[in-house]
Design a protein that fits this description.
Length: about 90
């Protein structure tokens, strides 16, 4: 089934949000089938709902991950500094 026919039959049309339908062409002629591709600026799986996700969402997840690592490194550095000052001041005196 070609894209123009498949789009009219919403129950059998497999391309979801943010995806384009592309007719399959083999040896210069339409093979009667189609494929789905994510639109420019989107990535992942075009055949499931919310499958084509914007790169901005991926970038957000990446930034959150870097922020989490940064906070962890700062916390570790702070703990090391506390330990250093503790040892320099002879720790707890009983």
């Amino acid at each position: 089934m070609r894209c123009d026919v498949a789009k009219k039959k919403s129950q059998t049309y497999s391309c979801k949000e943010h995806s384009d339908c592309v007719d399959r062409i083999i040896n210069g002629t339409s093979s009667g089938g189609y494929t789905c591709r994510c639109m420019t600026g989107y990535d992942e799986n075009p055949c499931i709902s919310d499958g084509c996700q914007g790169i901005s969402i991926s970038m957000f997840v990446l930034l959150v991950g870097f922020f989490w690592l940064y906070c962890g490194m700062k916390r570790r550095k702070f703990e090391q500094l506390k330990e250093k000052y503790f040892k320099e001041n002879d720790g707890e005196k009983l």
